[in-house]
Amino acid sequence: MSAPADLPPLETPFDVDVDPRLLEVLVCPVTHGPLELDRAKGELVSRGARLAYPIRDGVPIMLPEDARELGEGE
Description:
By secondary structure, the chain is mainly β.
């Protein structure tokens, strides 16, 4: 069931912003591969490692032990 058209869209809990220059140089610490920014979830995603690194206060936390494992279909 969808929301009525007259209601504003729900706010996401994160909607983070990271310096684009930082995103150009960051790589996954496990695979050394590229990362994708997921603004809605506040994470940097490594498809190769199947990990999502959190972004806290605009700072990516690039520690594998702090990363979330991607679920099926993510």
